[in-house]
């Protein structure tokens, strides 16, 4: 029996994932968490084989959680389930230690298969991600400027482009406004942009946010 914990800040999404996985006779969803703090508390109480993890969460993002678990040498296999398209976060998540990446809009059967695959210690990637991995090997140069951004800088870019104020971003990420301003300045410098309007246009053109 594969023991699974779901971590997503939206209760409705957690319910949908739980219902999907609960239909599988070999998968047992043993708990849910809405943020990093709840996840850590739950992991101290329960033994988990697979963590189904969202990328976009308040406080520590899913990428942050991946880095922490990797640094700790955790044996838990992480399957990232995200609303973001594969070409924006899949490679980052896999490099950070994830065993697989599935889009939330995909087939529920795909989610079950992905959990089973990573539980066996194997990587789960869609054909689209496999193609991106091949292309990244044959063309190692950076194709998009935002690929040079750190995980936190990319997160800041997406949130600014989504219309959030720096104060709101600081509150959501549990950082000081000054720190968020530093991330914003780095993003502007690395992308060669001047202001939030240009950031937003760049993010839309590159599919980082919807129009």
TrEMBL record:
Domain of life: Bacteria
Residue span, Response regulatory domain: 3-119
Classification via Pfam families: GerE, Response_reg
GO terms classed as biological process: phosphorelay signal transduction system; regulation of DNA-templated transcription
Keywords of the record: DNA-binding, Phosphoprotein
Gene Ontology terms, MF aspect: DNA binding
Entries under SUPFAM superfamilies matching the protein: C-terminal effector domain of the bipartite response regulators, CheY-like
Annotated positions of the 4-aspartylphosphate modification: 54
InterPro entries linked to this entry: CheY-like_superfamily, NreC/VraR/RcsB-like_REC, Sig_transdc_resp-reg_C-effctor, Sig_transdc_resp-reg_receiver, Tscrpt_reg_LuxR_C, WalR-like
Domain spans labelled HTH luxR-type: 142-207
Protein name: Response regulator transcription factor
UniProt source species: Ideonella aquatica
């Amino acid at each position: 029996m594969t023991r699974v914990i779901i971590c997503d800040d939206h209760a409705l999404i957690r319910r949908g994932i739980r219902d999907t996985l609960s239909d599988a006779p070999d998968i047992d969803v043993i708990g849910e968490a809405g943020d990093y703090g709840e996840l850590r508390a739950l992991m101290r109480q329960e033994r988990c084989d697979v963590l189904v993890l969202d990328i976009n969460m308040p406080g520590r993002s899913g990428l942050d959680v991946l880095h922490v678990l990797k640094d700790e040498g955790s044996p838990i296999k992480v399957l990232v389930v995200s609303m973001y398209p594969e070409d924006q976060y899949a490679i980052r998540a896999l490099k950070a230690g994830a065993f697989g990446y599935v889009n939330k809009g995909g087939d529920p059967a795909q989610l079950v298969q992905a959990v089973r695959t990573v539980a066996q210690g194997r990587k789960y990637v869609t054909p689209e991600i496999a193609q991106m991995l091949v292309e990244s090997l044959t063309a190692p140069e950076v194709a998009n400027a935002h690929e040079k951004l750190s995980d936190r800088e990319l997160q800041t870019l997406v949130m600014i482009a989504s219309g959030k104020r720096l104060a709101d971003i600081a509150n959501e990420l549990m950082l000081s406004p000054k720190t968020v301003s530093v991330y914003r300045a780095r993003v502007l410098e690395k992308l060669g942009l001047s202001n939030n309007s240009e950031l937003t246009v760049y993010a839309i053109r590159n599919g980082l946010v919807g129009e």
